[in-house]
User: Fold this.
Amino acid sequence: MYFAFMNEQLFKKICVEYNWNENTCYEPLGSGLINGTWKVTTENDIYVLQSINHQIFKKPEYIDENIKTVTDFLSKKYPDYLFPALIKNNRGESLVELEDEWFRVFSFIKGTQTFTTVNNELQAFEAAKQFGNFTALLNEFNAHSLHIVLPDFHNLSLRYQQFEDALKNGNYNRINECKEAISFLQSQKNIVEKWIQFINGKEAIQRVTHHDTKISNVLFSECNNGVCVIDLDTIMPGYFISDVGDMFRTYVCPVSEEETDFNKISIRKNIVTAIYNGYMQSMKNLLSGFEQDHFYFSGEFMIYMQALRFLTDYLNNDVYYGCKYEKHNYNRAINQITLLQQFQNTIK
Assistant:
């Protein structure tokens, strides 16, 4: 597992890189599980310092180049569009390697806040609107000029194949105890087939897609209006169902994927509607009829894929996701299976 690391000696080296004086201080910021993030306060300004998890992102330079390319496009085409800009060090670099860690610095947008959970339909609407607007503004940008930072990230065929491999080669005892969950996921293989049909459809267009549309990746004003999207590490060419599906998966249920009281898992229909209305405000005229027909399928696709990934990891003895207890990934899988069933009942 990767753990973001920071100590006084390392921070002093970072201060030298950015010409920050000895009175500069830092504190942890946010609750992200992938990268380490800190709020840095200098005598003159506030910044966001972040380390890149190079165990997941094998080529940090790809992320840096993607963000700069998109930033250049937006600053020229839509100069009023607001998002945190990369700050260059004293050598004009926006990506710095120190002690086998990769760091970058962003401007801190004052008067904004983030949320870790969706508490009401306004938050869902505003977040969906921001992610839709981000993709819409980049409609004329060549998505295929971006680096693929996470190959096969949302490749459902691959995830199902990994699931089948785990059934053949995984922990025998765990396979036996998970027969009901395994049977259910196998019974839903039509979702894989529908996904294949979608991506092969002539009207399914690859656009600049965020790929990580959880609510904490949106900045909100103090009045709870959406300001902009953040954390552009996973921007790549992709299909809109990745972004919409991730919103459905993480917004519509009042409890998270960590909940083990599965009776608490339900679908908030007003949040489903808010996601649709918010995203479509910017994207309705850009999505083909074929794509619009798959709007709610995006939720099935994403929830199903995550259920597959959690159970696959459990069968493989928890080699990918972190676990805090013996059946952590199993419970996560059952959580997502329950969510999928509830979601399917809602969109019928």
